[in-house]
UniProtKB/TrEMBL annotation:
Catalytic reaction annotation: L-tyrosyl-[protein] + UTP = O-(5'-uridylyl)-L-tyrosyl-[protein] + diphosphate; L-histidyl-[protein] + UTP = N(tele)-(5'-uridylyl)-L-histidyl-[protein] + diphosphate; L-tyrosyl-[protein] + ATP = O-(5'-adenylyl)-L-tyrosyl-[protein] + diphosphate; L-seryl-[protein] + ATP = 3-O-(5'-adenylyl)-L-seryl-[protein] + diphosphate
Active-site residues from the entry: 255 (proton acceptor)
Species whose genome carries this gene: Variovorax ginsengisoli
Cofactor(s) named in the record: Mg(2+); Mn(2+)
Protein name: Protein nucleotidyltransferase YdiU
UniProt xrefs under InterPro entries: SelO (IPR003846)
Gene giving rise to this polypeptide: ydiU
Uppermost EC category: transferase
Length: 496
C-alpha cells in the first residue's frame, strides 16, 4: 500500500478511523478567517518529522487552523461519554476537537477549537485565545517537567469573535499524542450496551498500547483485567508526578482522563503558588471536588468508573477490584519516590532496613509538608531554594521563607542527618527534579494580555523557559520569583 505523502513531511494512516462509524463522525474542520501564528513548538514538529520549511509556511498556518485540508488527513470527531463532577453526564464527544489522523509513527494530530461537530451540544465548536495559550504552554511545560502529556504543535489565532463572558477571539491548538482515547470512550459503549464496540475498543487499545496484556498470566490470563491494572498503574504514576510538582488539573472528569495516563485537557489548571493542600483552582468547582489534595482519590474514583465500564469484558467484580488495587500500591510508593528525589534522598542509608529507612523518610516528608502548609510557603521556590542550599551548604535562603522558624529550624538538622547518613544524591540532581520555572497563573495571564494585543513575545519567552524548566535561564529571574499580589485574584473557570 502506498501511503499518501505531503510536502509537510507527514505520512498518514488512520487506525482509529478504521474502528468504524460507531466510534466517530467524519467531517472537515470549519475554516477560520485570516489565521495568524501565535506560537509553534519546534520540538513537537521534530517529533512528528515535520518539514521545517513547511512548518513555517502559510500553507501550514492554514492547515493547522483547519482552514485548508491537509493532504492525507481523514478528519473526524469521536464520540465519548463521561462523569462530570461525579455525575453521569451521558453522551459528550469531541465537540470542538477534530482528529486529522495518525502518522505512520503512531502519533495522532488533533485540532482543538476547529469548529462544530455532531457532539458540540449547543457549543460553538471554538476555543478562545486565552485558554488556548494556556493549553499550548502547559502541554509543553509538562513535557519539559518530564510529566506524561498530550503535546502542542502549534497555536494559531483569528480575529473571529467568540462569545464567552465577554467577546474574545478564536484560536486553534494543534495537539499531538499517541492516542486521545479517554476513560469516557469506554463508558460510552458500556452505558449504551454496545458490547461488540466496547470489546473492539478494548482490543484496539490493548493491541496498540498495552500489548503485554494479551500474553499476561495475571488474572488467569484475563487481558481486560490486565488492561485495567496497567491503566491504574500509569494513572497512579501520573498523579504522583502532579502532586510532587504542585499541579492542580481542575477538571478531572472521566472524559478528561487519558487511557494512556497522559495529562489531557488543560482548562482551569494551576501550578500552586503557596502550598495550600486544599487549593481549588477551578472557579466553577464550588464544592472543591477537584481540590489539589483530592486529586489522588478522584483519580481512583475515575478508575472505578473505568472498571465499571470494562466489567462486561473482565467478567466478574472481584477480578476488576483486584486489578484496581494496583493504584493503592503504586500511588504512595511513586509519590514517596518523587518526594525523596526532591529531597535529594536516594536509597536507604547502609545498614538500615528498607522499611525503617522508608519510615524515617516518610517522617521527613510529612514534616516538611506540614511546615509548608502551615505558612502557605511557595511550593516551587521552596524546593528550588532547598536544592541550591544543599549545593552551597547555606540554608539561609530556605529559612528566610518562614515567618515562624521554629519548625524549619528543627526539621533542617534531621534532614541534614539523613543526608549525612547517605547515600544522598548530589545536589545537582535535586536541581534536575525541582524546577525553577513553572507556568504560574500570573505568568500565563501576562502573556495572554500581550497576545490579545497581538504581541506574542510573552508566549515565546515562556515557551523557551518552560521547555527546559530546570535550567537557570539567566536574565529571567523575575519569572522564577514570587507571584505578585494580584495573582491570587485571577479567576480561572471552565469557560474556555
Ligand atoms: N465551545 C465548545 N463547543 C463545543 N463543544 C464544547 C465546547 N467546549 C466544550 N465542549 C465539549 O464539552 C465537553 C466537556 O468539555 P471539556 O471542557 O472537558 O473539554 P474540552 O476543553 O473541550 O476539550 P478536551 O477534553 O478535548 O481537551 C466536551 O465534550 C467538549 O468537546
Ligand atoms: Mg475535556
Amino acid at each position: 500500500m502506498t501511503l499518501p505523502t505531503d510536502i509537510s513531511g507527514l505520512r498518514w494512516h488512520h487506525r482509529f478511523a478504521m474502528l468504524g462509524a460507531a466510534f466517530h463522525t467524519r467531517l472537515q474542520p470549519t475554516p477560520l478567517p485570516e489565521p495568524y501564528w501565535v506560537a509553534r513548538s519546534d520540538a513537537t514538529a521534530r517529533l512528528l518529522g515535520l518539514d521545517a520549511q513547511w512548518f513555517a509556511s502559510d500553507e501550514a498556518l492554514e492547515a493547522l487552523t483547519g482552514s485548508r485540508p491537509l493532504a492525507g488527513a481523514e478528519p473526524l470527531a469521536s464520540v465519548y461519554s463521561g462523569h462530570q463532577f461525579g455525575v453521569w453526564a451521558g453522551q459528550l464527544g469531541d465537540g470542538r476537537a477534530i482528529l486529522l489522523g495518525e502518522t505512520t509513527d503512531g502519533l495522532e494530530v488533533q485540532l482543538k477549537g476547529a469548529g462544530r461537530t455532531p457532539y458540540s451540544r449547543g457549543g460553538d465548536g471554538r476555543a478562545v485565545l486565552r485558554s488556548s495559550i494556556r493549553e499550548f504552554l502547559c502541554s509543553e511545560a509538562m513535557h519539559g517537567l518530564g510529566i506524561p502529556t498530550t503535546r502542542a504543535l502549534s497555536l494559531t489565532g483569528s480575529d473571529q469573535r467568540v462569545r464567552r463572558e465577554t467577546l474574545e477571539t478564536a484560536a486553534v491548538v494543534a495537539r499531538v499524542a499517541p492516542s486521545f482515547i479517554r476513560f469516557g470512550h469506554f463508558e460510552h459503549f458500556a452505558a449504551s450496551g454496545q458490547d461488540a464496540e466496547l470489546r473492539a475498543l478494548a482490543d484496539y487499545v490493548i493491541e496498540r498500547y498495552y500489548p503485554a496484556c494479551r500474553s499476561t498470566e495475571r488474572f488467569g490470563g484475563n487481558a481486560y483485567a490486565a488492561l485495567l491494572e496497567a491503566v491504574s498503574e500509569r494513572t497512579a504514576a501520573l498523579l504522583a508526578q502532579w502532586q510532587s510538582v504542585g499541579f492542580c488539573h481542575g477538571v478531572m472528569n472521566t472524559d478528561n482522563m487519558s487511557i494512556l495516563g497522559l495529562t489531557i485537557d488543560y482548562g482551569p489548571f494551576q501550578f500552586l503558588d503557596g502550598f495550600d493542600p486544599g487549593h481549588i483552582c477551578n472557579h466553577s468547582d464550588t464544592s472543591g471536588r477537584y481540590a489539589f489534595n483530592q486529586q489522588p482519590s478522584v483519580a481512583y474514583w475515575n478508575l472505578h468508573a473505568l472498571a465499571q465500564a470494562l466489567l462486561p469484558l473482565i467478567g466478574d467484580k472481584e477480578t476488576a477490584v483486584s486489578a484496581l488495587a494496583s493504584y493503592k500500591r503504586v500511588f504512595p510508593s511513586e509519590f514517596d519516590r518523587r518526594m525523596r528525589a526532591k529531597l535529594g534522598l536516594d536509597t536507604p542509608p547502609p545498614g538500615t532496613a528498607v522499611a525503617e529507612a522508608e519510615a524515617t523518610d516518610r517522617l521527613l516528608i510529612d514534616g516538611v509538608l506540614s511546615l509548608l502548609a502551615a505558612e502557605r510557603t511557595d511550593w516551587t521556590i521552596f524546593w528550588r531554594r532547598l536544592s541550591v542550599a544543599v549545593q552551597s551548604g547555606d540554608m539561609a535562603a530556605v529559612t528566610d521563607l518562614f515567618i515562624d522558624r521554629t519548625g524549619i529550624d528543627a526539621w533542617l538538622p534531621a534532614y541534614a542527618a539523613r543526608r549525612a547518613a547517605g547515600p544522598a544524591q548530589a545536589a545537582g540532581r535535586m536541581l534536575q527534579v525541582n524546577p525553577k520555572f513553572v507556568l504560574r497563573n500570573h505568568l500565563g495571564q501576562e502573556a495572554i494580555e500581550l497576545a490579545q494585543n497581538k504581541d506574542f513575545s510573552g508566549v515565546a519567552i515562556l515557551l523557551t523557559l518552560l521547555e527546559s524548566p530546570f535550567d537557570d535561564h539567566p536574565g529571567h529571574e523575575a519569572m522564577a520569583g514570587f507571584p505578585p499580589d494580584w495573582a491570587s485574584t485571577i479567576e480561572i473557570s471552565c469557560s474556555s
